[in-house]
Amino acid sequence: MNNNEYSIEVKALTKKFGDFTAVDNINFQIKKGEIFGFLGPNGSGKTTTIRMLIGLMDPTSGSANVGGFDVAKQSEQVKKVIGYMSQKFSLYDDLTVSENIEFFAGVYQTKKETREQRKDEVIKISELFGKENTLTGELASSMKQHLALGCAMINDPQIIFLDEPTAGVDPVARRKFWHTIKMLSERGVTVLVTTHYMDEAENCDRIALISDGVIVACDTPENLKRDRMKGILLEIECSNAMRALEILRIDPSLHEVSLYGLFLHVVVESEEATEMIRNRLSDNNISIEKIEKITPALEDVFVSLVEEQQNLKLKEPATERRGSERSA
Amino acid sequence: MFDLPLFHMIRKEFRQISRDPRVLRIAIMMPVIQLLIFGYIASTDIKNVRTALLDSDLTPASRAYVKVLENTGKFVITDQIQDEKQMTVLMDARRVSLGLQIPKGFERDIDSGRQAQVQAVIDGSNSANATIILGYLGQANQVSSNIVLSKRLAARGLRGNVSLFDVETRVWYNPDLKSINFMVPAIFSQLLLMISMTLTAFSVVKEKEKGTMEQLIVTPLKPYEMILGKVIPPILIALTDILVVYTVAVFWFRVPMRGSLITLFTLGTLFMMTGLGLGILISTVSRNQRQSIMTTNLIMSPMFILSGFVFPIASMPVIIQWLTHLIPLKYFLVIVRGIFLKGNGIVYLWGEVWPLIIIGSSLLGLSILRFRKKVE
Amino acid sequence: MIKHIIAIMRKEFMHLIRDPRSLMIALFLPIFLLFLYGYSVTTDIKNLPVAIRDGSHSSQSRQLISKVMNSGYFNLVAMPNSETEFRRLVDSGKAKIIINIPTDLATKMESDSKAVIQVIVDGSDPTTAAAAMGYISGIVQDYFSGVMVKAALHKPGSLVQAIDLKTRVWYNENLRSLNFYIPGLISTILMMMAASLTSLTIVSEKENGTMEALVASPIRRNELMIGKLMPYVIIAFWDVIMISAVGRFWFNVPIKGNYFLMLFASFLFLMAALAIGLMFSVIAKTSQEAMQLALLTTMLPSLMLSGFIFPIENMPKIVQVISLLIPARYYLRILRGIFLQGVGIRYLWWDMLLLAVFCAIIVRISVRSFRKRID
Predict the structure, then answer these.
(1) Which terminal Cβ of chain A has fewer Cβ within 10 Å, N or C?
(2) What residues make up the domain containing A123?
(3) C97 bridge partner residues
(4) Can you give the pTM of this predicted structure?
(5) What is the ipTM of this complex?
């Protein structure tokens, strides 16, 4: 056991499946009690990374330390000190809530008294009073998710891994869920969570943005929003967003023109561009409701960074692509 | 004990099994139904062979010859025909299995001391039956022949009994040679094997497909705890099956039970463990359910055909005989007959028991070894 | 309509191709099994373990014993000296037959009085017992007629046989048991394989939740069923062609009848077997259930009730009626008719019709049970 301040340390972790590199040389450290978010589109390597960290999959190269144990060589010890909630909830649909909890409690070799205590705690955390004898398969998604979180905590682990825990769950439940996570973090539990909900990522202490197996950025949400976006973000509301998109995309001085709901988001180098845009659009008979500067949301940062990384990739086709890694 | 992870694994499996009553019902009802139906197929006895008779002689001698044949109780003259063409038609249509031709001049030959001729045509498609029929035919012919010889010898003043010899046969354990007493234990064994294999063949694969396997692997559960946890609960079903099938065999079919019930249950459970172990092994090496079922097919089929139930092992090529040593069913067939009909105990049967122990533990051991606590 | 069917077919094919192990088994298992069985299967009874007690120790008894051993059916495993050993020999399974030659054999024979030879058989295996009894009777009678005549006439080579029986065997001149069993093996192998192949197809969609998408689409029930059946029909057909080739060219089982007739009959049979698997897939709630149904209802019943080993005519009436439900029964008769007897459609049309009807009924049941609704 180490007394380091870091719960999780990852060094040059790589995973290849044949020719395909799913995770490419990533590095990061996570402090005790941190809520660390892994943000990225599907297929970016989030789940593969988690699987390596919990000892489920062997890395091709590199190493990682979780709770002081090496994930490749001491995977069984790692499993004793962590909790895991997988994407698919993976609880037994044909067992009741109570039976599921009892099973997972029993499997961690806890003593009977402790088991009962933990069981009550889990029911409390998951807010499943009165539902102990319902078949898990019959629960609503949000309740299943809470139960899965509870079961992941059954052995009172110091580190938990949550893989897309809020997928398919309503916003109210999501909020509740994050409330619980914050509570755990205050207790000193380190939380590594993957998500592709940008708004949720704001709840994390730090975020790593991952794309194509590479960590594109790693910092607090505020820092990311402030520092990583080059230029100024304009939001445009107009009468024909699609047409406006086409028109503005052609202009090389305008970076990253994208649709954001019904609005257009454009990144410009200076505010003077506003005039230019106004003119360009009215020349094409598009009336403008408003153009204003806004603070970028995480999503914008993300899109920007990912595009930048794609461009980098295109410029270096044959050489080993070193991800633009930044450590906190 | 209740603190052991193994206990919890077993309890979870039990609970899951009880939530799927249809599977339980099949596991228990199916053997009963099948045993009831198949037990009645006690027909390896050849009797009432349908025979077409073409008697061109129509003399007392020829009629006497036919009488001898009919007296064996194995042949029934169903058609009397006038020419060979009719014989062909009847054989082709499978109306008769045997055609008997007594030529004109039969009695004349016998009376004049010459060798008389008789011709028979037999349907060889079922060679086993054909061989047996030929045997009975030959014997009947021999009896007739000896009667004639005896008369001739007597005519010369030499004493000759019709039969100077007698073969007195005693059949042990199954005096009426009732095939039921053989069939029922054999079917009993096959059913137990099938049920046990199918109970576990999906056990591990199901979790892989559902995704719960991932969650399981991330816990401290060890491979042996997982495998044993999945093998032990079905044993209860297995015991129920043994009890149920035993009841049908003894109280319905009246198969004599001369051995001890305890021995039957012990060895029956041992046998089913090999089936359960086989199923689990298949489950661990299959990535999805389709592979599981196809692999089960691959293994079950030869096990049945080569187990010695239908086709005698002693007649198989030597290499294949060696292979049959790996088939648990082979040993259990002997064990089951031994217990029911001969009253054998474990000591007598030890030669069949220790291979089962080895096979069972190897299968379980292999499954545990193969079980990786890793994904992909 | 065709477009829908083809769409489902393609999807099903894709599933299969992504699962090379299952595909390999489906394509090659039947051939492998046929090879294996072809070399193992025979009902010729030989190597019977026999124990002989020679109480007489005379030249007669020795002649008798050598006649028994020369027949080629028996393996001498023991020569016990006393009758007390008999129990142990048979109980332990060491000997299946015991021949007990009495002490007074020679004296009785020389004085022209009746000599009795005792034969004890292990009845727990009636087939072997019956065969053994038959063989021994034959051998002993043979021996005694020879002795009797020689003694009476003092002339070697005298007329032993007053009546000579000549037999001809039709359809299977060499009494090759293989020729009889290969068609039966083929039908059993194919039956199990086919039912297993289709038994999971619908139920796994139910379990994975992908059934919802299918149900919401405009595809109709019978299109779904047919689309799901077709890829397997193709695979099974390949199996038939391969198996019949192996049977014909490797094991030299003659196909005296029309080869194409056989292919057509095989097609009907396969459809029936696949349809049965499909039906299980529809009515089962879980794949475990489907698997159990498929394996348990095809393995033993096709083995026992199809006429493969046990002749249907000798079964009790009730069982005969039940055997009408087994498609393998009809297929087997057709196969044997074509392989061994060389008969044509005149004799086989009835069985083929029944197969076709059977198939149609099962498909209909599957279609009806399949609700395009989520419960």
Answers:
(1) N
(2) 6-220
(3) C50, C121
(4) 0.78
(5) 0.78
